[in-house]
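dumping this here so i dont lose it again. seq + smiles for adenosine-5'-triphosphate
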Amino acid sequence: MTLSLEALADAYAFESSPRRADLGVLHVPFDELIGSNRTEARLDASVRRHEPIALIGASGCGKSSVIAHVLGPTTEGVVPVYVPLVAAPSQTVDTPEHLADHLLATLVRLAGSTGEQVERDLADTTTVTTRVRRGRAGYAGRWIGADVAAEVLHQAQTERNATLADKTDALAQILGTVADGHLVPVIVFDDTDRWLSYESVELVARFFAEGVRWLLELPAALVVAVHPRYFETTSPAELLGYLDTRIDIPSLESASAVDAILRRRIETIVGTSDTSLTEVLASGASAAVLAVYRESGSLRRALQVCHTALHDALSDGAQMISARHVVAAASAG
Ligand SMILES: Nc1ncnc2c1ncn2[C@@H]1O[C@H](COP(=O)(O)OP(=O)(O)OP(=O)(O)O)[C@@H](O)[C@H]1O
Ligand SMILES: [Mg+2]
């Protein structure tokens, strides 16, 4: 089957902000791309040792993608607990007490909804679900029981003036239920960029000091996405004092890495199994995409440019995306 630019455009092949359920499937491990074992392999091993981990990288470089891949539904033995910050007010994390409340509420909501959500994702055929489907049994089956979580929350809330110690015990009990099944619960703070817009230096510093110190009391691994912009006000040594394991998202250096990422998207999203990227990308185009990535440090930006270049090529009546399309799309902002 020949691949057309129309097919790519129709399938949103270069969508730069996929849903989390799809991120992991579209992920090409940095370890493969650069021939190391310092990113995904290290994160996986560290999580299984229950380490507190800082995953460090600028906006759009691939932190969420790495997390989604390593803690994705096909990974055996881990139970990720994504603690959402985007919709939460800043007070949610300003003290260990508030953090404990938020984490408890998150756990209970997840326990009740995970099975349902997974089923919904599976039913949604407009998105990439092949691998999610394959991981189905493991994913739905390994979540903590909603009844256990609800019971524990109930206990924590009905105790008048529940202390931080009570809440910590309740959380440890829930997470312990997961761990007893020989699974590793992993508390994930992925959308910490929420705080960048607040310019809230103090809040960030408090979270990384008191908040993280308290989180270490829980029987779980911890993964925190960290933006290097935080280091503008506090040194890494100071800010990450409690996050002993530090993993930096590496930079990609070659056009073949860009090719591998685009090829994965075409294969997965368009669904062609023996796609040749050279049918749609003219020679020199990936080098131009790599240049965009290098300048911005962002794969999201590189994909946005690919998306615009694809549409420009289509309106040109071209058969392929050329380097010229990429350069024009990049300079269009
Ligand atoms: N190794 C990779 N393989 C394939 N796609 C990737 C890879 N890394 C990043 N991407 C893609 O790049 C885009 C940005 O990645 P991601 O959302 O993970 O960045 P981020 O570091 O979490 O950004 P932010 O700080 O804004 O949250 C996404 O479209 C993602 O699919
Ligand atoms: Mg992210």
